[in-house]
Design goal:
alpha/beta; Rossmann fold; 6-stranded parallel β-sheet; two-stranded parallel ribbon
């Protein structure tokens, strides 16, 4: 009987062990919230709460006895999300409310609902976002979809709720992305469907990356204007966020090792959101205005060289996009 060469077994076993060790180290580096004190009596508004990171954020908050207003495009999907969360916990309260960030009128209706029925809240979490390889899609108001939904929808939502935010001394949490460092603010094409080069994936989708940079600028300007604003990157997470890219079967095989090593679960990504909503503390040195954002539960300096003039102008241009709504809501026009 021939001798068995155990190296044939040792090499693959060692490789698997190394990969597993790398994964465990990465999970440790991502961090985990240790403070689980009760959030009873506190109310959080979460956009995009029925899926992905928003779903896990909602679940984590209600599991600590909070009330979560789930701002979702589909009440049906929000109700299904509530049912799924109720299988894990009976704590907290969840309230499904309709909100389509790609439609100004939907935002106005949602804000009116909040003002009339839930005026006292502790935190607004601007979480919802999208990415699509189609650069020609627009919002209901004719604005390029990434900018119009990811940035402008949340800008208008926050603007219309600013009196309640200030009265409640509520936090504003802005979910950006590390990919903001690959974005750019081009005022000549702002909100327009201009074909950028290489829009084939989330990682190099300039429209998406630029909307995340706009999110960061929004958080900076909010903080400079006296709001308790926090900005974060949840990390690259395995959610249905990639649903519009229609990956082929072989993509799953090719990228499975990368996914396993690099991608977080939605629950792991939501840790950064919950941390910003509950425990993160901005300081004079580390805050959105100085270019810091939360990543892996730590304040991290962005590589982007922020320009205060760009931030101020982006705020002004964003107001112009929403001017008809803002003037109407302030009672200046019928």
């Amino acid at each position: 009987m021939a001798d068995i060469n155990y190296w044939y077994f040792a090499i693959p076993v060692a490789s698997v062990a190394v990969i597993y060790l790398i994964r465990r180290i990465r999970v440790w580096q991502w961090g985990r919230i240790r403070n689980r004190y009760s959030l009873a009596g506190k109310t959080y508004i979460v956009t995009g709460a029925n899926t992905g990171i928003g779903f896990e954020t909602t679940k984590a908050l209600v599991n600590r006895d909070a009330t979560v207003i789930m701002a979702c495009r589909s009440i049906e999907r929000a109700d299904k999300a509530i049912g799924a969360i109720r299988k894990h916990t009976i704590k907290g309260t969840m309230i499904a409310c309709h909100l389509d960030l790609a439609t100004f009128e939907s935002i106005v209706d949602f804000v009116q609902n909040i003002k009339e029925n839930y005026p006292n809240f502790n935190c607004l979490i601007n979480n919802a976002g999208l990415a699509t390889p189609d650069s020609k899609q627009t919002t209901a108001d004719g604005i390029e979809l990434h900018f119009g939904t990811n940035h402008l929808g949340h800008f208008l939502l926050t603007k219309l709720l600013q009196d309640q935010i200030q009265a409640n001394r509520a936090r504003v949490v802005v979910v950006s992305s590390l990919l903001h460092q690959r974005g750019r603010i081009d005022f000549a094409t702002l909100g327009k469907c201009v074909e950028p080069q290489g829009v084939i994936s989330k990682a190099n989708n300039l429209l998406y990356n630029s909307s995340k940079l706009a999110n960061f600028y929004h958080a900076r300007e909010l903080y400079k204007r006296g709001f308790d604003a926090h900005v974060l990157c949840p990390g690259l997470c395995h959610t249905d966020f990639f649903r519009d890219y229609n990956p082929r079967w072989y993509h799953y095989i090719m990228f499975a090792p990368v996914v396993w090593l690099l991608l977080r679960s939605a629950e792991q990504g939501s840790e950064n959101v919950v941390f910003c909503a509950t425990d993160n503390v901005n300081t004079d040195e580390k805050n959105p205005a100085t270019g810091y954002f939360v990543r892996n539960l730590k304040q991290t300096k962005s590589k982007t060289q922020f320009d205060d003039k760009i931030g101020t102008r982006l705020w002004t241009e964003s107001e112009k996009f929403c001017s008809t709504i803002l003037l109407r809501e302030m009672g200046k026009i019928e």
